[in-house]
Write a structure and sequence with these properties.
The complex is a heterodimer of chains A (about 375) and B (about 260). Chain A has two domains: about 90 residues, no CATH class; about 220 residues, MetI-like (MetI-like fold, Orthogonal Bundle). Helix content of chain A is about 70%, strand content about 0%. In chain A, helix 6 runs parallel beside helix 9, helix 6 crosses helix 13 and helix 13 runs antiparallel to helix 14. The two termini of chain A are about 45 Å apart. Chain B has one domain: Rossmann fold (3-Layer(aba) Sandwich), CATH 3.40.50.300. Helix content of chain B is about 35%, strand content about 25%. Chain B is built from eleven helices and ten strands. Chain B has a ten-stranded mixed sheet, sandwiched between helices. In chain B, a hairpin with a 6-residue loop joins strand 9 and strand 10. Chain B is globular and about 55 Å long. The termini of chain B are far apart. Classes of the chains: A mainly alpha (about 375), B alpha/beta (about 260). Chains A and B meet through helix 10 and helix 11 of A and helix 2, helix 4 and helix 7 of B.
Chain lengths: ~375, ~260
C-alpha cells in the first residue's frame, strides 16, 4: 500500500494554519480598555460611571477589532466585533434589572421584618409614624392583610383560569377545526392585549350589575385577574399540547383507547411539566396587577379573609396607597418605607413562583434515564 | 399466547384524504395465522391502506373510506361500529418506536389496560407483563429494570416493547407499518424472528420497503403501485410470496421485485 502522497509540510508552516493572537489577548485588551476608559473619563469633564462605561466599551471595541484585523484577518475580526457587541447588549439589558433589584433591596430592607409580614395596618395612624420618627415609639404597621389578600385573590383567579384555559387549549389542539377554532384563537389573541384596567372595569361593571353598584370584594378582583390570566394559560398550554408527538396519540388509539382517555392519560401527562410552568408564569404575571384590583377589591387597613364580602387589600394596592397617600402628610417617610418593603415582598413572591415553576418542570418532565 | 386470529376480506376499497383519492379499488383476502406483506414504491398507498384495516386512517382530519373491510365476516365500516372496539381487536405497530415517555417499561406493556382503567389484580398484571415481553423477545433484556422508563431502551428494544404493548391486549390481527425501517440489521433480525413466532397465533400484516424482508417473513405478498404523482395507488397483484418473487403475472411486479425500478 505505498501510494505516492504529498510530503507532510514541516511543522509550523501548515497550509491550514493562520496567524493567531496569543490566548489571553482579549482579556488583556479588556483590562487596558477599562484603564483607558477611566483615564479618558477623568480627562473629559470629570470622572463619572456612565462616561467611564461608554468610553471603556468603545475603546475595547475599536482596539480589539483593529488588533485582530491586523494580525488574524477579516473574518476573525468580524467575529470578535460581533461577540463584543453581543456581550455589550447583554450588559445593557441587565442594567435595569440589577438597578430595580438594588433599589428595592436598598429601600425595602429597613422595614422588612417578621413584624412587617405578620401585622396589618389596623389602627395605625400618622401619629404613630411621627412618634416613631421622633424615637418615642417603635415603627409599627405591616402588610399581612395585603399578603393574605394577594394570595386569596390570585389563588381564586388561578382556580377560575386554569380549568377554563386548559380545557380551551385542549379544544383548540385536539378537537377544534374550522371557523369556531379560528375565532377562538383570534379572540384569545385579542384578550391577551386587553389593558388590565379594562379587565378591572369589566369585572367591576359585572359585579355592579349582579350585586349592586359599588360592590367590591376579593372575588371581583379574582374575576378581573382571571380575564387577564385565561389568555396566557390558553396560549402556553396550547403550545405545550401541540408539541406532544402525534405518534403517542396514535399509539394510544391503536390500543383501543378512546380519544378522551388518550387526552387525559397520555397527552396531558406528557405535556404537564410545560403546562404547569406556564400556569405558574401566568400567576407571576398577574400577581403584580394593580389597576384592576383597585377598582374591584378596593383598599382596607384590616385583615379580611373572606373574599366574598367586603373590601380586600392586595400587595400592589398596598404599595400604591402607602406611596400615594402617606398616613402622615408632614412625615411621609415611614409610609414610603412600608411601600418599599411591600414591593420587596412582591418581588420575593414572584421569584418564588418562578423557582416553583422550574421545580415543577423538572419534577414532571418525562424521564429518560436508563 | 392465545390470540384468536381472524381473517380479513377487503372489498373494492377506496381511500380518500379529503377529496383526494389516495388508494383505489383494493380487494384482497388476508388469511388467519399467516403473514401478509405489502410492498411497493414510496407513496403508493401501502401505509394508507394498512391504516384502514383498524380504522386508524380516519384519525387524520378529512380522511375517509368507501367500501368494505370484513373481519371474520363483520364489516368494520358498518354503521354503529365503534372504531375504538375495532382497534382493540386489530393492533398496530408503527414505523417509529413510540413508547409512552411518561411510563415505565411495565406500564408501557400494560398501557392498553391501564389507559382504559381496567382493574387488574397484581398477579394478572405480572403475568401479562412477563408473557407479553417474552412474546416480544424482550423479557431477558428488561426483566431487571421493569420500573425504568421505556424511553431509555435502544431503538430496537423500544420497537419490541411496542410489539409487547400491542400483543398484551391480545388482538386478533396485528398490523405492522414498516416496523424495522428505523432499526439496525441485528434488531431487524430479532423482530423478523418474532414475526415468525407470532404468526402461530395472530394474523399479521406487514408493510415493508425491504423486499428481502418480505421474502423472508411473509406467506403472501401484495404489490401496490402508482401510475404517477397525484394518481391513486392500486393493488397490482397479490399471490404467494414465492410466486411473486419468482414468477409474477404482471410485468410491473417483476420489474419491481427484480430491482428494475423503485
Amino acid at each position: 500500500m505505498s501510494v505516492a502522497t504529498k510530503p507532510a509540510p514541516p511543522a509550523g508552516s501548515s497550509s491550514l494554519a493562520r496567524n493567531q493572537l496569543p490566548r489571553r489577548t482579549t482579556q488583556l485588551v479588556l483590562v487596558l480598555s477599562f484603564a483607558a476608559g477611566a483615564g479618558l473619563s477623568a480627562l473629559f469633564g470629570g470622572f463619572s460611571v456612565v462616561s467611564f462605561a461608554v468610553l471603556s466599551v468603545l475603546v475595547f471595541l475599536v482596539v480589539n477589532t483593529a488588533l485582530s484585523a491586523v494580525v488574524e484577518g477579516r473574518r476573525k475580526a468580524t467575529d470578535k466585533l460581533v461577540t463584543a457587541l453581543v456581550y455589550t447588549a447583554f450588559g445593557i439589558a441587565l442594567v435595569p434589572l440589577i438597578s430595580v433589584i438594588w433599589s428595592v433591596l436598598d429601600n425595602g430592607l429597613p422595614r422588612f421584618s417578621v413584624d412587617f409580614l405578620t401585622t396589618s395596618m389596623r389602627n395605625v395612624t400618622g401619629l404613630n409614624d411621627q412618634q416613631a420618627l421622633e424615637g418615642a415609639a417603635p415603627f409599627i404597621g405591616g402588610a399581612y392583610h395585603a399578603i393574605l389578600g394577594t394570595f386569596l385573590i390570585t389563588g381564586l383567579a388561578t382556580i377560575i383560569s386554569v380549568p377554563i384555559g386548559l380545557l380551551t387549549s385542549v379544544y383548540l389542539v385536539e378537537y377544534g377545526r374550522g371557523r369556531l377554532a379560528r375565532s377562538i384563537t383570534f379572540f384569545v389573541d385579542v384578550m391577551t392585549g386587553i389593558p388590565s384596567i379594562v379587565a378591572g372595569l369589566f369585572a367591576a361593571a359585572l359585579f355592579a350589575v349582579l350585586f349592586g353598584v359599588g360592590t367590591r370584594n376579593g372575588f371581583a378582583g379574582a374575576v378581573a385577574l382571571s380575564v387577564l390570566m385565561i389568555p396566557v394559560v390558553v396560549r402556553s398550554s396550547e403550545e405545550m399540547l401541540r408539541i406532544v408527538p402525534n405518534e403517542l396519540r396514535e399509539a394510544a388509539y391503536a390500543l383501543g383507547v378512546p380519544k378522551w382517555r388518550t387526552i387525559v392519560r397520555v397527552v396531558i401527562p406528557t405535556a404537564i411539566s410545560g403546562i404547569a410552568s406556564g400556569v405558574t408564569l401566568a400567576i407571576a404575571r398577574v400577581v403584580g396587577e394593580t389597576a384592576p384590583l383597585i377598582v374591584t377589591a378596593g383598599f382596607t387597613s384590616s385583615i379580611n379573609s373572606n373574599p366574598f364580602s367586603d373590601w380586600m387589600m392586595s400587595l400592589p394596592a398596598y404599595v400604591y396607597s402607602q406611596a400615594m397617600r402617606p398616613l402622615s402628610g408632614s412625615s411621609p417617610q415611614p409610609s414610603f418605607d412600608r411601600a418599599w418593603a411591600a414591593a420587596l415582598t412582591l418581588i420575593l413572591i414572584v421569584m418564588l413562583l418562578n423557582l416553583v415553576a422550574r421545580l415543577i418542570a423538572r419534577l414532571f418532565a418525562p424521564k429518560t434515564g436508563r | 399466547m392465545t390470540g384468536t386470529s381472524k381473517r380479513i376480506d377487503v372489498g373494492d376499497l377506496n381511500v380518500y384524504y379529503g377529496s383526494f383519492l389516495a388508494v383505489e379499488g383494493v380487494s384482497m383476502a388476508i388469511e388467519p395465522r399467516s403473514v401478509t406483506a405489502f410492498i411497493g414504491p414510496s407513496g403508493c398507498g401501502k401505509s394508507t391502506f394498512i391504516r384502514t384495516l383498524n380504522r386508524m386512517h380516519e384519525v387524520i382530519p378529512g380522511a375517509r373510506v368507501e367500501g368494505k373491510v370484513m373481519l371474520d365476516g363483520e364489516d368494520l365500516y358498518g354503521s354503529n361500529v365503534d372504531p375504538v372496539t375495532v382497534r382493540r381487536q386489530v393492533g398496530m405497530v408503527f414505523q417509529r418506536p413510540n413508547p409512552f415517555p411518561t411510563m415505565s417499561i411495565r406500564d408501557n406493556v400494560l398501557a392498553g389496560m391501564k389507559l382504559n382503567s381496567n382493574r387488574l389484580s397484581k398477579s394478572d398484571a405480572k403475568d401479562i407483563v412477563e408473557r407479553s415481553l417474552q412474546g416480544a423477545n424482550l423479557w431477558n433484556e428488561v426483566k431487571d429494570r421493569l420500573d425504568k422508563p421505556g424511553s431509555g431502551l435502544s431503538g430496537g428494544q423500544q420497537q419490541r416493547l411496542c410489539i409487547a404493548r400491542a400483543i398484551a391486549v391480545q388482538p386478533d390481527v396485528l398490523l405492522m407499518d414498516e416496523p424495522c425501517s428505523a432499526l439496525d440489521p441485528i434488531s431487524t433480525l430479532a423482530i423478523e424472528d418474532l414475526i415468525g413466532e407470532l404468526k402461530k397465533n395472530y394474523t399479521i400484516v406487514i408493510v415493508t420497503h425491504n423486499m428481502q424482508q418480505a421474502a423472508r417473513v411473509s406467506d403472501r405478498t401484495a404489490f401496490f403501485n402508482i401510475a404517477g404523482t397525484g394518481k391513486p395507488g392500486k393493488l397490482i397483484e397479490m399471490d404467494d410470496t414465492t410466486k411473486i418473487f419468482t414468477n409474477p403475472t404482471v410485468k410491473a411486479t417483476e420489474d419491481y421485485v427484480s430491482g428494475r425500478f423503485g
